[in-house]
Write a structure and sequence with these properties.
188 residues, alpha+beta, Alpha-Beta Plaits, 2 domains, two-stranded antiparallel sheet, 6 helices, 23% strand, disordered C terminus
């Protein structure tokens, strides 16, 4: 997990702990003295009725702005360096998503019929989701190539000690140009 991710996680834990503590204190006060708790709340609300609405706007705007920023930070997708963890020989190995993508792309370069491949990695912890975009040679059978590619990808991910979650293949037939170069590159 990145440093920013750890900071956001720590902030979230503090906020949840404080809200839980406030709820617990409020529940205990209501349980021990319900009449007194309700009278305190009623007194606070009565005090707020006397305050002009115009003087509450700056406070409401600040609270709304802070809440909106926190909500935005929480739901905004994080595109930091994604790291996957695998248990290997009693220890832990961390694989960055870019390394997994390069490893799978290198493995796919050994399959006859694939001109180019592009791998996009998703998922979390041990479960890896992959989107594999392939450019194939025009005369190759797409179904057979898809089966071979899926098996190769599954074996490579499992060989890294990770679990393949979702695999999506996108196959586009390539052009005749570069067919000889692609076959030479695969053979080498």
């Amino acid at each position: 997990m990145s440093r920013v991710g750890r900071l956001i996680c720590a902030f979230n834990r503090v906020v949840v702990a404080l809200l839980s503590l406030a709820a617990l204190v409020g529940a205990v006060k209501v349980a021990l003295a319900p009449d007194q708790a309700l009278s305190v709340v009623a007194a606070e609300l009565t005090t707020l009725r006397g305050v002009p609405v115009a003087s509450l706007w700056p406070t409401l705007e600040i609270v709304a702005l802070v809440a909106a920023v926190i909500l935005l930070l929480e739901v905004w997708p994080r595109r930091g360096s994604q790291v996957f963890e695998a248990q290997v020989d009693g220890g832990t190995v961390e694989y960055p998503a870019a390394m997994i993508a390069r490893t799978v792309e290198k493995e796919l370069a050994t399959i006859d019929g694939i001109q180019r491949s592009r791998v996009v990695v998703g998922g979390h912890q041990r479960k890896v989701d992959l989107l594999v975009r392939l450019s194939t040679l025009p005369e190759d059978d797409s179904q057979e190539l898809a089966e071979q590619t899926a098996g190769c990808v599954r074996d490579k991910v499992n060989g890294l000690g990770l679990e393949l979650g979702r695999l999506r293949l996108s196959i586009q037939p390539g052009s005749e140009r570069g067919v000889g170069k692609a076959r030479e590159a695969v053979a080498a």
